[in-house]
Amino acid sequence: MTTTTNLGIDLIETNQTQKEVTANAATTALEAALTDAVEIAVEDGSNAVTDADFRDGVALVLTDGGVTAAFDVVLPGLKGIKAVINTTGEDATIACASAAPGAEESTIPAGTTAIVYCDGTQVWQLTAGLSAAVEAFTDLPDAPSSYSGEGGKLLAVNSGETAIEFVAAPYDIGTFVAGSPEADEVVLRFVATRAFTLPAGLSGSQVKAGTAAAAATDFDVKKGASSVGTISFAASGDTATFTMASATSFTAGDILSIVAPSTPDATLADISFTLAGTRD
Asked: Residue 71: what pLDDT?
């Protein structure tokens, strides 16, 4: 009886009796080829896949039959698309028995799945190796590997635009002073409702005046009663610079304040303060 080249399915002959027997068998074989999975117990070295195993399922499941190193799986000289599921702890190289020297092969890392196409002489990998089991966000290859120490942080794309990472949540604090501040005026008094940190040098903060200072003017930044930094306007300047020797952390109930100088500049006016912190 004549069969198909790759799946080996019997074809109906001319004037054949009981054609339904052949047709039903062909349909059953085709369904298996499109839906079933065949387990292949692999060992070290080269592992040949039989014609029958290649034809009997759309997926080849590579199980550990005693592998201790990377191994080869050799497909028969038949055509077909297969999902190859490497459940072993070693990398698998998928090749074709009819391959000429230098023919295309596929490498499927341990614990991953790939879809390959065998054209009877070469094996082409159609997908990159996919993790066989992703049970948590941290299993993804371009995500952080652990949640430890990252409580309360946000996810963001990294600076290289290649992956995601945990970053501290912004915690910005602002105020505005209309007109010119008075001597020793407390222009900001902020009671923390949760833990946050102001970075060294008050990096990222912005303080600007509507009217520039005539002379150099410094505002004191305090944590409670202690001075922790300085906000400085240069003569004729309307944009401040900052001094803070080290990062300063606040907990709920701590007071952050900004205090005007004892001898304020009479020209400096309409000041917007925004301090850039991060939530702890």
From this structure: 97
